[in-house]
Amino acid sequence: MYAIVDIETTGGHASANDITEIAICLHDGKKVTKRFSTLVNPRREIPIYIRALTGITNEMVAEAPPFEDVAADIYHLLHGKIFIAHNVNFDYSFVRYHLAAAGYDLQCNKLCTVRLGRKILPGLPSYSLGKLCRHLGIDNESRHRAMGDADATAELFSLLLRNDKNDHIKQALKQNSKEQVLPPHLPKKAVLELPNTPGVYYFHDHKGKVIYVGKAKNIRKRVTSHFTGNNPGLQRQEFLRNIHQITHQVCGTELIALVLEAVEIKRLWPKYNRSLKRFEHAYGLYMFEDQRGYMRLAVDKHRKYTGALYTCNTMLEGRSILNQLIETFELCPKLCFIQNNTEPCTGTGQDRCACTGIETAETYNQKVELAIAELHKALPTFAIRDEGRTDDEHSCILVEKGKFYGMGYVSHYFQVENLQQLKNYITPYPGNDYIKNIVANYAEKFPQRKVEFA
């Protein structure tokens, strides 16, 4: 037995909105056998644009029962049935969420008439309910009202049942089928064609624009995990509705995938990625020459288009490194902006220091250059050599002078120890401290995969 459902609501996601009308058509596989419909008092103002769309006003629902008063009837109508709707995950998330709030745990198999329409009636210009019904000659005089749309969806489902020559409905209902949990506009074939390998995957909208980038140890398994569960939140419901296509890049290792994900998020700036978008270098160690010709070192907030000698996450880390250089190379704390008061210089030069003008710019700058050279020398240059995408290649990630340089793939027989030759096989990528840290942590965890350069 099938239960064909349509609802009208105060907004687009269940956790912050309410149902204003619900209609259920019970269908025995041949025809509708029972209908149920009721307005629902949402106990809140219906937004004006919703009123304009549905025609349901605040006055119409004022005397209607609240959802909890009809929850028992709704639950018993749906329990044990196959839940069907046009874009089923939207309707199911709302009904299940509000039934749970009333004390009922709804667990149903689902069928989506959007997805079934694409499979059974391929090649149509649109699969929205209104356009699909017009194309197929299905009358719906109460568009955007629950009973009108439920009746139209029931007639559509009957038509799909009659035309399902390849048993798509039966296949979708199999226990191991992922069909019913997939986004409405994403073909199942797009998921089945994904590999079970490490890599990066991209979700695209209807225009082909990338809206989400993710990394995975197993691409197919990770992509499928996005579609499980019934999270009623706005972001998830909108996210699922906007997925129309998936592409991917196979990577040799999960580490390569992790780095590529960070690079691609910065490059593409996808709508639904959050955390890595916010990651930026917080601070940097900079050098500049003042009007008197003295080379000055300073820790400052990261400047996007100014090259830093060293980048770090905190001001404390930057000042600690600068203090070490001041002590080792007898630099002036005032010229390095460590000492900002008007007291005498606390550096080793004191009254003969560069800040007094007694130590010449030429002499002082030589010490600064030595300090910078030592800083660069202390920053490691190494490669991570690891598994490739095939048995006859290896992946390589290169860190040069403490900064992520890039990554690529080399032959199994290539001698990675030659830095200049290795660079011919490495694709440079923009880096940041996030990438630098995950590569450094990996090198520390797996020292046998690290190749150091003098």
TL;DR of this structure?
The protein is of the alpha+beta class and 454 residues long. It is built from 16 helices and 16 strands.
Keywords:
5-stranded mixed beta sheet; 36% helix; GIY-YIG_endonuc_sf; 4 domains; DNA polymerase III subunit epsilon; Nucleotidyltransferase, domain 5; 454 residues
Tell me the Rg in angstroms.
31 Å
| Multimerization status | single chain
Relative strand content: 15-25%
CATH homologous superfamily identity of the largest domain: Ribonuclease H-like superfamily/Ribonuclease H
For the biggest β-sheet, the strand order reads 3-2-1-4-5
CATH secondary-structure class of the largest domain: Alpha Beta
Fraction of residues in H or I helices? 25-40%
How many H/I helical runs? 16
Structure description:
One of its GO terms (biological process) is DNA replication proofreading. With 454 residues, the chain is an alpha+beta fold. It has helices at residues 48-54, 58-61, 67-78, 88-101, 113-120, 129-136, 146-163, 168-173, 188-192, 219-225, 234-241, 254-268, 315-329, 361-378, 419-423, 433-445, and strands spanning 2-9, 19-27, 32-39, 82-85, 110-112, 199-204, 210-216, 245-250, 283-289, 295-301, 310-312, 382-387, 393-400, 403-411, 426-428, 450-452. It has four domains: 2-180, Nucleotidyltransferase, domain 5, CATH 3.30.420; 188-278, GIY-YIG endonuclease (3-Layer(aba) Sandwich), CATH 3.40.1440; 283-378, no CATH class; 382-452, no CATH class. It contains 16 helices and 16 strands. The strands form four sheets. It has a five-stranded mixed β-sheet with strand order 3-2-1-4-5. The longest helix has 18 residues, at 146-163. The N and C termini lie far apart (73 Å).
